[in-house]
Amino acid sequence: MVKMNKIFQKRLSNHLVEMTKYLKYVFNDFFVIALMFFVGGLGYAYSGFLKQLSGNLWWERPVAIVVLLIGLQLGGLATLVKSADKVFMAPKEYQFHSYFSGAFIYSLVMGMIIDLITWFVLMPFLSISIGWGISQLIGLLLVILLLKTGWMAYQVVKLYFQLNHHMVMAFVTELVLPLIILVLALYFNVWAAALLALLITASLLYAASLIKNELLNWNYTIDHEDARMNRIYHFYSLFTEVPELSGRIHRRKYLDPVFKLLKRDQGHLYSNLYLRSLLRDSGPGSLYFRLVIIALILVLIIPNQIIGALMTVIFVYLVGFQLIPFYEHFDSNVFTHIYPVNQKRQLQNFRAIVQLLLLFECFVLLIAMLIARITIPIILITMVVWLIEGYVLTVPYLNKKAKQIRN
């Protein structure tokens, strides 16, 4: 008989293989170079920010608490539970505790890595702002690792209860108690906070050990894992196609004036189809608007002008790269194959729509760069790069992809 922890190990192995498959698309040469510039720019800006700190200002401790609290909420429980488990694993429900033990350990390690990075970034800030030494910083690290352990243990406990009756308890355990402990650590005594965190974490670990004979809340467990994987897949969808994501169509009546601008004749048949589908589909359509908004925000908040301009170049590339695969969106629709429109016309229509959407994105980013007071020479150079990107994506690259699809 296969043990439940072996099942988790097998699923984890398959999960890591799947994630590795997508990561090779994320860390392509272009993105790695851009990421190096981005991290370097942020590091430079952070260094300049630290030099301006005078210490003992009222806002410094609250900022550190908020950052640590956000870091604590990142890296949720990865159960890798499947929808079919509700049926096929139901007879082994009382053995799932050993399965979740493996999920707890894996998730805790991933979560602690996030907290370690957060702590490492905050080290110079805390040293300058409140004058902490190495012993206090180590004490804070112990506090956040203990809090993460207790937080993760509570995620396991939640799998066995109907949460609609325990929302207050979840709010207190996941947010209020960590907030109190972090306030104690940064305003009073970090080692007293570590002791309190140890007691709370021990209590939560003990509670997690007592639920092995309880009934699993299958609906919550499956929904929780589906939501977690969807967040991961949405991130990967910024760089490549993700078959696991399925979109929904929305009416979006407010876009009707935009659609009326298109000619309704045989020569613009696919222009209408592509634009309506792109803007109404919750997949590529929502992704397009999210990327434009994120790029807009980054340009406005990044103090370094060159890094801000570089971000616009990256996001124009990301948007164009995401739109290109939509060319074959209608290939599975049998009715499009009987339209009296040849493939050359279809390609021309699609190219025009992609260029239109990229033009709109560039217009929004141009307005953002002007608001951010980026110098005119940098803006002009950036616009030239946009034109080159747009041409490469919509002419040679699109032609190559279309040829591969048709062959």
Automatic annotation (TrEMBL):
Q: Name one GO cellular component term.
A: membrane
Q: Which Pfam families match?
A: EcsB
User: Transmembrane stretches, by residue range?
Assistant: 25-46, 58-81, 102-122, 128-147, 168-188, 194-211, 287-303, 309-327, 352-372, 378-398
Alphabetized UniProt keyword annotations: Membrane, Transmembrane, Transmembrane helix
Domain of life from the UniProt record: Bacteria
Kindly give the InterPro entries that the UniProt entry links to this protein. Answer: EcsB_ABC
Q: Does the keyword Membrane apply?
A: yes
**Protein name per UniProt:** ABC transporter permease
What is the native source organism of this protein?
Answer: Fructilactobacillus fructivorans
What high-level taxonomic lineage is stated for the organism?
Answer: Bacteria, Bacillati, Bacillota, Bacilli, Lactobacillales
